[in-house]
Amino acid sequence: MATDLDSTAAESGGVTADWAVAVPPDLKKNFSVLSPAQIELAKMLVEMGQSHLFRDWPDPGVDDQEKLAFFDQITLLNESYPGGLASYIKTARELLEDSRLGKNPFDGFIPSVPTGEQLTFGDDSFINFEETGIKESRKAAFVLVAGGLGERLGYNGIKLALPRETTTGKCFLQHYIESILALQEASCGYVEGGCQTQIPLVIMTSDDTHARTLQLLKSNAYFGMASTQVILLKQEKVACLDDNDARLAVDPKNKYRIQTKPHGHGDVHALLYLSGLLKKWRDDGKRWVLFFQDTNGLLFNAIPAALGVSATKKYHVNSLAVPRKAKEAIGGITKLTHADGRTMVINVEYNQLDPLLRASGYPDGDANCETGYSPYPGNINQLILELDSYIEELSKTGGSIKEFVNPKYKDASKSSFKSSTRLECMMQDYPKTLPPTARVGFTVMDTWLAYAPVKNNPEDAAKIPKGNPYHSATSGEMAIYRTNSLILKKAGVQIDDPIKDVFNGQEVEVWPRVTWHPKWGLSFTEVKKKVSANCSISQPSTLVLNGRNIHLNSLSLNGALIISSVEGAEVKIEGQVQNSGWTLEKVDYQDTSIPEEIRIRGFRINKVDQLDANYDQPGTFTLRPQ
User: Which positions make up the signal peptide (predicted)?
Assistant: First the structure.
């Protein structure tokens, strides 16, 4: 005789008849609450060893809304992961077993130095690549991965809203958008008769950052970009794992909720694939996709030349890199060749590269070569992908990226975790699945030009040994002034040497506070056209150039000079500017009366005196200060 439960199951599609394992009683009695689709999800979970999720579920009529909310979450986790939750659990078991056994993911691979391009800022090769890259820019789309908050920095906002530097106060996102718009305009300038091509910007957000990123854009009129030009794709989280059997971790405060954590920025590939944007871009004539991260304020100094390398060398994948000292705590771009003939060019983390080299017959491991640097350049997680080959690869993988797991074990037995773990993936691991015929290379730029990420809070940065990069808000801002000063110096301007000072326990070089709008100095060629050799800038000075056609003809600056000009205004600066200028005042990062974005730098700018020149009408003007 059939029971009510059995008849309910029959009404729900007869799902109990073909289950590979016994239905947990606490689940079975709740079939009447669930839809057929939800029962199918339950079946998948049980068959994947997740019966514990239904333990102690009460009878129908109790917590029914919570039960349905549980399946809403399961549905989201299932739909947002390529292959669904069953695939996630299966992969997790394999990777957890490899981790438990201490399996080396590079077993059978021999490392070697990959093919790439080493660029020297300002030489003929660099200038030619830069020009080629600017021409190609209108055929590019940019993808910014920005799923994280600034908590690690001691800043509670989204990192994109953090001022890149405090001389102008422009945030990272504003600088990125203004740089893309400058590239767009300059690239269209190479087309006879001009063009109206727009460069798309995709921003990958998360639950933590999506609403605030949208608000930042809307409240600032998208920083001059058309709203239709910016696309936000939200990344979902993945389920946490409780043990080596990959049992999904239940929230200790809510038995109807699975613990979740971010999956990593490798999700960007699947999001792009599923969005349909890649094929649309191809139909629109795009050729390149450039990926970058949220707080490297120097990146756009390097992008034009790196894109020029991709176009000239016909790279399918081009990783932007910087010179790297042997054993420095930054991953190295490495070619790996397996005994079975497989090859790949990928980032190998620094703590894996040295033992891998030693095990492969290099007794000194990761050692500096005759250049004084490791032959394996430092990966900075900025990628340029050729669009056609990218679409072809993602059509095979669905955008799924090789994952890893990093459980924190309670003891050496590796039988249990200190806390739940999850699978992770990284954007830069995309090349791992590429065929041997793929053209994968790198472009090395000077660190001072291309790389100054902001990711450490003041306390952690102060503990970093002297001479190593702090990667803090303090060092990130000072790096911008250093870079701009060195670019001007290379163009012939006399720049005073920096002084050394300590802010928030970090000793940094303090150069003149020079900053400009991207449309003023998009390339080194543009900068050289707008400055002359008989200009000089003293170390305490501040120079802000906010306009396209501002020419420094014979400027002697000892103070603060702020120049703004509209399109159609050409301004020539001649003579001496002398005033009390803007000074740096030290502040304590623990002083909560000071805004977070200021105190994490250890200084604020006191605007004592300046010469402000604003040209708001088209025309030709000459500024000759007395």
Answer: none
